[in-house]
Design a protein that fits this description.
heterodimer; A: 282 residues; mainly alpha; Formate dehydrogenase/DMSO reductase fold; B: 295 residues; 9 helices
Chain lengths: 282, 295
């Protein structure tokens, strides 16, 4: 092919220097935000038994968030300048919005973690849960928008990516707390969490299909390249846990379902981060 | 301790910005480019950028391959020749005259273009930057404050032209500064100064636009009907460019996007769709809790 023809077929953009640590960050931020948001809903709307399950969510969310923060910092070209992220507030930059969301969420998440673990100051927990809830949703949401509002082939045409990442966060939060409730032998919370998981996974599947149908030639190329990863996401992250929740409820199987939801979400995020790199290499 | 405190607090200080000056930019007339790479050399020399290793790229006479954190001007060599399996070119006509040499596009042609940061009026990299390191300076050029950048890489992802890169040396993002230091001393950027054919012109943007329109008419009058200006004005999806071009063919032939899109145009819609998705799963869970809760 003449060289100028090659130029016309090539990806113009440069893939960002984001690799495995960003995929882990994507997973951990979603998991932490999902755990906290689900725990907050259960804590604020449920009874005493539900609150015990919710507190497991508060206890788990903060350590996961710490892993996320470590990934965020080590992924920077100059990690010692992490604090420069807080120099400005830019509503037009999803990363800036996300950083401020993470700052507040991490603080609230730490307080809820400490209170749930130590048990002192429990009267503050409802207020903290209510205050932290919108910030957890911001953390669950912004990453998808951060990726879709780039010029990168594949990402830039995924208009439903923010919704998908957020629903994935919710599904992980519900699945993990369902496993916790089932292991603790509290049937009531386990029952409504199982119902919620089924419906959230159905919505997840619908949005996933919508995401597969949209996009430009690069997105279609990405879908072909990463067909195995995408199918793994659907099979492991949606179909298997859905089948378990509908057909084989129980402490062990609920744990398997939770692991499957997390594994499927991890597979999707891994594929997502790789898309521009692979298209760039092609 | 004092030094550490100063280093931590320094990025948060806000010195008074310099007064605005007349907007400047580049007009790169690719029809005049002879591929000498003087602009690349001058840029590297002035900005003290390291060599890229003289690697063999198997891509015409190109050995720097692309714009990067260490290459802020890149001369592209674009060969437009028929595929090798088609009929061989006819033997050269020895009765050459100046006109036939100038209009040699019978059997193919070379396109050469000195590429650079486009210094977009509404720059996606500047909008994306979460630290405020990327600004429009007093000349309205897009400038990365190297002492602020923390190398998050979001500007790399946001640039639709693939200009910005993160340096492996210091971990920060780098690109053409439009020789900000030289401009402040009323000097022309190094590349424009070195260009022997005035393919790269530097000056106030309004004057460059006027000159570019004249050049386009001239080139079209010479028979290059496909000639066009790229980035001289805003489109529906992208702002005007502070570094714009006169091209002889479609932008994609030069490795430029035909219709660049500002990624942030979709942000509000994407947030709304994200919020809708969030609302659905939150509502499902809330209903599940309430519908089960006693009383």
């Amino acid at each position: 092919m003449p060289q100028a023809e090659l130029s016309a077929a090539r990806v113009v953009t440069k893939a960002p220097p984001w690799h495995r640590s960003v995929a882990i960050d994507l997973l951990c931020s979603s998991l932490a935000a999902g755990l906290f948001a689900v725990a907050a809903i259960i804590y604020l709307l449920g009874d005493a038994t539900d609150r015990a399950v919710a507190m497991v969510g508060f206890v788990l969310a903060f350590p996961v968030m710490i892993v996320d923060l470590v990934c965020l910092v080590i992924d920077l070209g100059d990690p010692l300048r992490f604090m420069n992220m807080t120099r400005v507030i830019k509503p037009g930059s999803p990363m800036s919005v996300g950083v401020w969301g993470i700052v507040v969420f991490s603080l609230v998440s730490f307080l809820c973690f400490a209170i749930s673990l130590v048990g002192i100051g429990a009267y503050a927990l409802p207020f903290l849960a209510l205050f932290g809830f919108p910030f957890a949703l911001v953390v669950a949401n912004y990453k998808g928008v951060l990726f879709s509002t780039t010029a990168q082939p594949g990402w830039s045409s995924m208009r439903w990516l923010g919704a998908l990442i957020s629903i994935s966060a919710g599904s992980m939060g519900v699945a993990v707390l369902l496993a916790a409730a089932a292991l603790a032998g509290v049937d009531d919370p386990a029952a409504f969490l199982r119902t919620a998981l089924v419906w959230i996974l159905v919505v997840y599947a619908i949005v996933f299909v919508a995401l597969q149908r949209e996009g430009d030639r690069w997105t279609r190329a990405a879908r072909r390249t990463f067909a195995a990863g995408m199918w793994l996401t659907v099979l492991v992250g949606i179909i298997v846990p859905l089948a378990i929740a509908l057909l084989a409820a129980g402490p062990e199987t609920d744990c398997v379902a939770a692991l499957c939801v997390i594994a499927g979400s991890a597979a999707f995020r891994d594929v997502l981060v790789k898309i521009p790199h692979r298209l760039d290499a092609n | 301790m004092a030094n550490l405190l100063r280093d931590l607090l320094y990025p948060f200080t806000r010195p008074t910005p310099p007064a605005s000056r007349r907007a400047t930019g580049f007009f790169t007339d690719t029809t005049l480019c002879i591929g000498c790479k003087a602009c690349e050399v001058a840029c590297k020399q002035w900005n003290q950028l390291p060599s890229d290793g003289f690697n063999f790229t198997a891509n015409s006479y190109d050995n720097t391959a692309q714009l990067s954190a260490t290459t802020w001007r890149h001369v592209k060599f674009l060969e437009q020749f028929p595929p090798s399996d088609s009929a061989p070119p006819s033997p050269p006509d020895m009765n050459l005259d100046l006109r036939s040499l100038l209009m040699e596009a019978q059997n193919g042609r070379w396109l050469m273009m000195s590429d650079v940061c486009k210094h977009c009026s509404a720059a996606p990299c500047q909008m994306a930057c979460p630290t405020g390191a990327i600004i429009h300076n007093e000349f309205d050029d897009v400038y990365i404050q190297n002492d602020i950048c923390n190398g998050c890489g979001y500007c790399v992802a946001a640039c639709p032209f693939g200009v910005i890169s993160r340096s492996a040396f210091d971990g920060h993002a780098h690109k053409c500064t439009l020789c900000y230091d030289r401009q402040r001393d009323d000097l022309m950027p190094a590349c424009a100064k070195a260009c022997p054919t005035e393919s790269i012109r530097f000056g106030p943007l309004d004057e460059l636009h006027e000159h570019a329109v004249g050049r386009l008419e001239e080139v079209k009058a010479r028979g290059f009907k496909g000639a066009r200006l790229y980035g001289d004005r805003a489109s529906d999806t992208y702002s005007a460019l502070g570094a714009f071009f006169l091209l002889l063919d479609e932008p994609s032939r030069y490795g430029l996007p035909d219709d660049p899109d500002t990624p942030q145009r979709h942000m509000i819609g994407d947030y709304i769709r994200g919020a809708a998705g969030t609302l659905i799963w939150v509502a499902i869970l809330a209903i599940a809790v309430i519908a089960r809760a006693p009383g």
